[in-house]
Design brief:
Layout lengths: L1 H20 L2 H26 L15 H30 L8 H29 L4 H7 L4 H29 L3 H30 L5 H11 L5 E13 L2 E10 L5 H18 L3 E9 L3 H6 L18
Parallel strand pairs: 2-3
Antiparallel strand pairs: 1-2
């Protein structure tokens, strides 16, 4: 919401500055801010749609709507933001003209830097509550909720773009050569295209389906085992159905002399422990099996064995 409000205000001011000055950097930056406003609207729509209840046709719900709309954001940023800016910059270089009423673009750019800085600061504050000890690049790569990485990259790109636009306008005013305004515009476009490609790659990975983080996997493995009926994990798969919804499917080792009722009770207890350890683990499937040490020695590699990771385990 902070990013949306800032971008709408900035877009309006940039278009006013373009109307008075004729600066192509201002036009490109205005379209960029307008595209960013649309991007925030897409993220809000995706968040709303993701709240729909599961249906027989979509039994795992609509959590991935957020990933779809985040991917659309990268496409909008690439096409409307980046490619338009490159085209506008090329036209300005090919047909340069002197910037009029220079105080309009300079004043708007200074205002825009302040507004984008506020939005960027808000995104950093929100992200710091989630990223923990991760670096910023690690946080962007590993975050399961797409909104914060998208806003972070957008605002970061916007601030750099504003500096480039200010530099292009400044050099054009000092030299009297409008070509520099076009060069600044092309640089803005290239920057937006690069950011869009990064966003597309990250959201594509989320759309394909990512597993839980290593910390959550370890918590789940520890929660499954009770030391009595459930003695270990033979193998396990996890999948994010959405940023706050995780599917867990595991084959677990149980004592061979337990009754069906005891195994069923142990599985229910294991599911409760998993949900307590990792609250986003909402869809859980546990299949009981008998673990064999003899077969484990010659069996295929698995993800984990009773007591933790080991090179060999097998299922029966």
């Amino acid at each position: 919401m902070a990013a949306l409000g800032a971008n709408l205000a900035i877009a309006a001011s940039k278009f006013v500055a373009f109307a008075f000055s004729g600066s192509s950097s201002m036009l490109a930056e205005g379209v960029h801010s307008l595209a960013d406003s649309g991007n925030q609207a897409l993220l809000l729509i995706g968040g709303k749609k993701a709240q729909h209840e599961a249906t027989p046709q979509h039994p795992f719900g609509y959590g991935r709507e957020r990933y779809i709309y985040a991917f659309l954001v990268s496409i909008v940023l690439f096409s409307v933001g980046g490619m338009f800016a490159i085209y506008e910059g090329y036209e300005k270089i090919k047909h340069p003209h002197e910037i009029e009423h220079w105080y309009w673009p300079v004043g708007v750019l200074v205002f825009a830097i302040i507004a984008e800085g506020f939005s960027f600061r808000t995104a950093i504050k929100e992200s710091n509550e989630l990223r923990g000890t991760l670096s910023w690049s690690q946080f962007i790569r590993r975050a399961k909720a797409p909104e914060l990485p998208v806003v972070l990259l957008e605002d970061f790109g916007a601030l750099i773009g504003l500096v480039l636009a200010l530099g292009g306008v400044g050099v054009a005013l000092l030299t009297g050569d409008g070509t520099w305004d076009g060069i600044g515009t092309v640089c803005i476009g290239v920057l937006l295209v690069l950011i869009a490609l990064v966003l597309a790659g990250e959201t594509k990975s989320l759309l394909l389906g990512e597993s839980a983080g290593l910390e959550d996997v370890q918590k789940i493995e520890a929660a499954v085992v009770d030391g009595h009926t459930v003695t270990g994990v033979i193998h396990m798969r996890t999948l994010h159905l959405g940023p706050e919804e995780l599917l867990v499917a595991a084959k677990i080792a149980v004592q061979h002399d337990e009754t069906a009722a005891q195994v069923a009770t142990a599985i229910n207890a294991a599911e409760a422990r998993i949900r307590a350890a990792v609250p986003i683990a909402r869809v859980i499937y546990l299949e009981p099996d008998i673990y064999s040490e003899a077969e484990a020695a010659k069996g295929p590699d698995r993800e984990a064995t009773p007591g933790g990771p080991a090179p060999h385990a097998t299922e029966h």
